[in-house]
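Subject: Interface between my chains keeps coming out wrong

I've been trying for a while to get a sensible model of this assembly. When I model each chain on its own everything looks fine, but I need the whole thing in one frame so I can look at the contacts. Pasting all components below, labels as-is. Any help appreciated, I'm running out of ideas.
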Amino acid sequence: MKFVYLDNNATTPIHEDVIDSMNEALAFYGNASSMHAFGRDAAFKIEEARLAVADLIGAPSGSIVFTSGASEANNTVFNIFREQIDLGSKRNRIVTTAIEHPSIIEMVAYLRGRGYKIDLCPVDNTGRVRLDALKELLAEDVALVSVMFGNNEIGTIQPIKEIVEMAHSVGAYVHSDATQAIGKVEVSMRELGLDYLSLSAHKFYGPKGIGVLAVAKGVPYAPYIHGGHQEAGRRAGTYNTVAIIGMGAAAKIAKRDQKDEERRLWKMREMLRKGIVEKIPNVVINGNQEHCLPGTLDVSFPHAEGESILLYLDLEGIQVSTGSACASGSLEPSYVLLSSGVDIELAHGSIRFSFGRYNTEDDVAYVLEKLPPIIKRLREMSAL
Amino acid sequence: MSNFMAQWVYSPAVKDHFMNPRNTWDEKENFVPDGVGDVGSLACGDQMRVMIQVENDRIKAIRWLTYGCASAIASTSMLSEMAIGLTLEDAYHLAPEAITEALGGLPEHKFHCSVLGDKGLRAAIDDYLEKNGLPNPYRHTIAKIVCECHNITDVQIENLVKTKQATTLEELQEITKYGSTCGKCKADIAGLFDELKHIYNV
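Reply #2:
Try treating it as a single job with all components included. I did that and got this:
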């Protein structure tokens, strides 16, 4: 049976070279914080990885704080400003969007429940932040603006540079969760003027459980995890040497291949989009078709329910994800789609195809062979 | 990589009924139903139509259509097999638990999907009886689901009113979460609540 993995926005397979680097890294068992030779060797490899990640995101190596992933990085940023507000800062409002990753959406709900002021900037019907609305929300009392670089579900890329300029003009700091963009499009903290950036290694062919919060020089900081002097006191906990080295190897590959990958992913994505529009009547392509992560295609199939599509595709060896409520464990369909003005039925019938470096044009052809009869069958069975 | 260790997301019976649904409606068949039941809510992601033919007070044949997830498809398919040959009375009392059991179980949050089929069947029987001017002795023997998204029955609400656990609509909402997903039941439940408050004088 053929397998076509098109869920690379959920996670990616580990690159062979990364696996090799991690196998070698298992030998560096010294605690990187120890002064002796074994510790120094581990620390040396960690610093190599730090440089590779810094180079990938256009930031100085001193800005890199290793975390357990982007969720921790995102939580850390919000906690920094929570602390600032607790300490009596006059800047006591945070602005973010309704389509952020759950690690921010849930943090917002948690903080709001404790009385913190957080505004959600609306997005247009392609998922792009409405800059006019953002402008209305920005004022001298805003401490932080947090906007993701590219959306995990619909792929929409945000105008980060404009957002940074607008936020900085009122003196607010800016964070961007760039997890989905790393390795796919160019992301340079320096160029964008970002103050904080989150990323996670497993989205660019690195291991799970490791990520980074990049922190620009001179911006507020407070550790989220207390306990040790690691990362210059910014994040406690014994270094996860193997994972950090793996992330470093993945970062080098991501930097080396980014331009080629961007072109290749977009080509396959466009082949699939055109093929679906051609072969299946009545489909809706979600997200922004101009500002879009190159490997992400989100499609709604009216009169066919997402979980059923996903599972029929799975039985054909094709792995995708859906914004349907039925697959989420709740009765609510994707908040990203609903916030982008997508109709509730279309949200239930949405499928995300996300390409990665191991996909080929043959995979696109296979999906275009298997998908149309599935949609046809579900529509014939539909009571709508 | 092709030998997956994990089982399929649902039971083998669900998989079988999902892949090969029984008794689905097909235009070419020219199936003439004696009763039709439409249930479901698009906001919750499922909508269903059940069509029955009745002979000598028994379900002779059944056809269905559904817009829904794998467990909605499988549970309706299973229901359609179980219902054939039943008397209208037995068919009316076919419990979702029996369907779920026949399917080898469903995850907790999927129970919602399996209660749709039996509701559809009941609606089809109601329709058959009404069309033929026959009395409907079953309608009041069954708790009726008033909020489809959260599976709340009229009996549940009656108990909350009777025991004064819910004295205002806000309290009722707090306890049951009714109307918080698709919202289409809100007006009906408000009406039912007023009626029950009047009946129990609270």
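Reply #3:
Confirming on my end. The beta strands of chain B are 35-41, 46-55, 58-67, 145-147, 152-153.
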